[in-house]
Amino acid sequence: MAGTNSERVMLAEGPAIILVEPQLGENIGMVARAMANFGLVELRLVNPRDGWPSDKARAAASKADHVIDGTVVYDTLEEAIADLNFVYATTARYRDGFKPVRSPVTAAETLRAKFRTGEKTGILFGREKSGLSNEEVALADEIVTFPVNPAFASLNIAQAVLLMSYEWMKSGMEDVHGVPFDAPEQPAATKEQVIGLFEHLEEALDARNYFHPPHKKARMIENLRAVFSRRAFTGPEIHVVRGVISSLDRFARPGQRPPAGKSESEAEATHDDDRDA
Amino acid sequence: MAGTNSERVMLAEGPAIILVEPQLGENIGMVARAMANFGLVELRLVNPRDGWPSDKARAAASKADHVIDGTVVYDTLEEAIADLNFVYATTARYRDGFKPVRSPVTAAETLRAKFRTGEKTGILFGREKSGLSNEEVALADEIVTFPVNPAFASLNIAQAVLLMSYEWMKSGMEDVHGVPFDAPEQPAATKEQVIGLFEHLEEALDARNYFHPPHKKARMIENLRAVFSRRAFTGPEIHVVRGVISSLDRFARPGQRPPAGKSESEAEATHDDDRDA
């Protein structure tokens, strides 16, 4: 892809998702959708209860047809993982055994590292009701488990696949704090712009004797400036705020008629010397 | 909770999940389930199309009754967020505006930090078909968006809530690489145990003239030791492997009768000097 290509890239790579004896076509479809959302494409089914293909699966996949069309069915788990180099088993509870247990983050990082060196990997997900058997877990290299509410651990198969697929996607990002789009670059205004705003505001307020009594003026200016600089305004925002001050300033000087319906500005409303009174 | 209390803790805290004009009760139920899985509890609905309460929602919530029972319905989004200090809007695409856009990881960290200082927070999710309007997004402080496959971005509302709830849970963990349970501590065997294994194996092989021709013996031992130490065995594993060697070693010395059905060991099978021939 050219760096500036705006075409939407279809990601389709990464570990195989292997569902062991899935029961509901709808769940298989939701798994396919979750995979497609995060760029996975290779779905393998071991002995699906209601057979394959499945109209219910295709409907629930919500147009993830490339995943549904590529789905391969196997009679046994051994066949389903035969060509893979490294396999995770997902389990919700501790299994007696000597397999390392990993978090989804660690598992995704491991899968990404193996993917980059050309190893073929997969993740096993068990039956809706009963998960994976101990014998099935034993075929995997490591276990992955999800951090859930101890008193409410009820992840279904599509949710579990979604989380692993999401972590897979994140493992390929340079920075998990990054975002695919952002507001245009908004540098903070220069200090000249900020001070210009302060002086504009203070002049307009001074004309109304806002700074009263006079010996409090320095402290009041200090407070005002703190309020108006606690969040750094951008240049365009300074422009907007100065427009507001100019607009409020119009027609309202002593001796001029205030416009109909003019409401008190917030600064005036919180000040005990209300010039509109 | 006492540190050693094995009772399952019901997590029920954190940001409010606010669904704006959700259409399907089933989706609301799946949202409640996703929330409960990751310890969230406060669900707010703005003007749900099919009314509230909803039997379909309760059924889809898969026993997350504490979330369903506590759900509050509002007429407007403004009322639904009135008591909150900080609000995220979830959107799938760039909106013209000046709101910062955050990743789910950053958003969850921010929500966690505000939670710890006592601020009330919420996350807005839009309609199934059309998401949030620009006016609704404008009521939020910041935007959160999900890293998805550019050519297949089809997260539904329950999936989006699941991911944010999951990141919320992770933001409270000391280490996202941590796991809720793990295999018992498995220290690597001592070098004395490892060398004991090597010597045991080499002695048994030597008795069968495995190391042939003699001038290659040193190199063959080096290779064997590399194979048997690439992954660090634990003490109990060393015990198992030595048991295997002892068992294979039995009855098979020259002059002894091999047991019926004895298969070649892998090391023998890959060696050109097959003593069974």
Quick synopsis:
Chain A has 277 residues and is α/β, with parallel strands linked by helices.
Please give the radius of gyration of chain A in angstroms: 31 Å
CATH superfamily of the largest domain in chain A: SPOUT methyltransferase, trefoil knot domain
The third-level CATH topology of the largest domain in chain A is Alpha/beta knot
CATH architectural group of the largest domain in chain A: 3-Layer(aba) Sandwich
What is the residue-averaged pLDDT of chain A? 85
**Count of helical segments of chain A?**
11
Number of strands of chain A: 7
Structural class of chain A: alpha/beta
**Strand order, sheet with most strands of chain A:** 3-2-1-6-4-7-5
Shape of chain A: elongated
Secondary-structure element order of chain A, N to C: EHEHHEHEEHEHEHHHHH
Distance between the termini of chain A: 67 Å
Oligomerization: homodimer
Quickly count the domains of chain A.
Answer: 2
Strand content of chain A is: 5-15%
